[in-house]
Specification:
The protein has 236 residues and is of the alpha+beta class. The protein has one domain. It is built from 5 helices and 13 strands. A 9-stranded mixed β-sheet has the order 1-13-12-8-9-11-6-3-2. Strand 4 and strand 5 form a beta hairpin. Helix 3 packs antiparallel against helix 4 and helix 4 packs antiparallel against helix 5. The N and C termini lie far apart (43 Å).
């Protein structure tokens, strides 16, 4: 029996969505003009542009929600020096703090989540850890989207998460921080955590060439559903 052509098109379209919804292809030129400016002059829209640039998700757009194939929607935000600066600057703008608070918070956040620090005298971001041993951090937003709804429990949850480079080498989770963080994952609704991966692959080699993650990477989440959830971020 011949398959109707419109059904074939629909099947191809669904396959396309499933295969592409987890990949973010980005063009760095969109943020270069912002990065060239003094960080104390970034406005709210510019901060949001940088944050979005370094974000990736497996979530299918709302218009196609009936085609959803995942039990968990995940949004990933790479906490590199540009993102940390944008997050802190955005907070300063929204809460109307002054530049002294900006300096203090930016220095603290950089040293907590990256290999960088801030020279507060000249407002210059500098490498603090030349060996880049402090790890690679991501902000993860996880949402249980099972339908019908079922709680998701993973006893050793974060041990199932991996960071992979474009050559197929990977590293494991070093640390997880955030409100209500436990060694296990109990996903009844939403979960926001910061996950830090080792900067070194299993063979001891450095996973990425730079001290700040601005390269192609892949995050793999096992155990949350039957099939692994893979989210990729690729520079053009």
């Amino acid at each position: 029996m011949r398959t109707p052509s419109n059904l074939i098109i629909l099947l191809l379209f669904v396959t396309f969505l499933a295969s592409c919804s987890s990949v973010s292809n980005v063009e760095k030129l969109t943020i270069v003009p912002i990065l060239e400016k003094n960080i104390t002059t970034w406005n709210l829209d510019e901060c949001n542009t940088i944050i979005e640039h370094y974000s990736s998700t497996n979530k299918i757009p709302e218009i196609f929600k009936t085609l959803r194939t995942n039990d968990v929607a995940i949004k990933v935000l790479s906490l590199n020096k540009n993102v940390i600066t944008a997050i802190v600057r955005k907070e300063i703008i929204e809460k109307r703090f002054d530049n002294n608070v900006f300096k203090y918070n930016l220095k603290e956040y950089l040293e907590e989540y990256s290999s960088y620090t801030l020279d507060t005298n000249i407002m210059k971001i500098e490498i603090a850890d030349s060996n880049y041993s402090s790890g690679i951090s991501f902000k993860l937003f996880l949402e249980n989207v099972t339908d019908p709804f079922e709680p998701i429990f993973l006893e050793d949850g974060y041990s199932y998460f991996f960071l992979e480079n474009q050559n197929g080498k990977f590293s494991r989770v070093n640390e997880v921080t955030g409100l209500y963080v436990e060694d296990y994952i109990q996903l009844d609704g939403y979960l926001n955590v910061v996950v830090t991966f080792s900067p070194f692959a299993s063979d001891g080699s450095r996973l990425f060439s730079s001290n700040d993650l601005d390269e192609n990477y892949k995050l793999i989440f096992n155990g949350l559903q039957k099939e692994p959830i893979v989210i990729e971020w690729k520079t053009k």
